[in-house]
Every structure is written in C-alpha cells, then in structure tokens.
Amino acid sequence: MKLNVNGKPKVAFICVHNSCRSQMAEALGKHFAEDVFESYSAGTEMRPQINQDAVRLIKELYNIDMEATQRPKLLHEIPEVDIVIKMGCNVICPFLPSQHEEDWGLDDPSGKSDEAFKIIIDKIEENVKALAEKIRSGEL
C-alpha cells in the first residue's frame, strides 16, 4: 500500500449523509488510531450538522467533542485515501477510489434509543481497533 508523506495511510469512513456512523468512526479513528492512520469521513449528501445524539454520546463516552473538529463533508472535500470503509448504506454506497475497501455493515442508529447507538458505537470502536491492528501488522 502506498503511504502518504507522513507514513500513515489515509482512511475514509463513508456513508450517504456523513452525519452519524461515519462521523463517529472518524472521531474514534482519531481517538484510538491516530498513530496508525489518518481518519476522514464524507458522504454523497450533506446534512446541516452532525447527528446530535451521536455528538452527545461520543462526548459522554469518550469526552470527544465532534463538533469542535468535524462537520458533514461531501466526498470531494477530503483528500485521496488509501482505505475506504463503508458504514453499511443499505442503498448504493458512495464510491471512492482506494487500495483497500471494507463494508462494516452497521445499522444506522439515527432516531433510535441511546442503547441502539451504544451498540453501534461499540462495534465502531472494535472495528477501528481491528483496522489499526491490520495496518500495524502489515496485513493491510
């Protein structure tokens, strides 16, 4: 895999709206794997803000204020990436060229209970850590 200038691959977490799952993945990627990869998120449609339940829960669970450093973005607003992670769109997922692509198949917790959000957040954390380990070990 070609690496960018600082030696870390760039990872894009993508979904249609870039307001919930992909934003949480970007935040947790920065939190747990900043030493291994650069995290970005984007979508094909723009929402005016990050999902407020996601903002609240990520702040509550990890003390990360997503709104301080993140905002909804379209695909063309992020740099070229090495790895694309699709959140699980259940529709036609956005396409970004990359050297590796995964679909994490995560349900959208938008409009659901905090418990439903926490299940998805736990899966994102687990997947981010596993991705970091694959990169660290040279598997990717």
UniProtKB/TrEMBL annotation:
Keywords: Arsenical resistance. The keyword Chaperone does not apply. GO terms for biological process: response to arsenic-containing substance. Residues 9-134 form the Phosphotyrosine protein phosphatase I domain. SUPFAM superfamilies: Phosphotyrosine protein phosphatases I. It comes from the Bacteria. PANTHER family: ARSENATE REDUCTASE (PTHR43428:SF1). This is Arsenate reductase. It comes from Acidaminobacter hydrogenoformans DSM 2784.
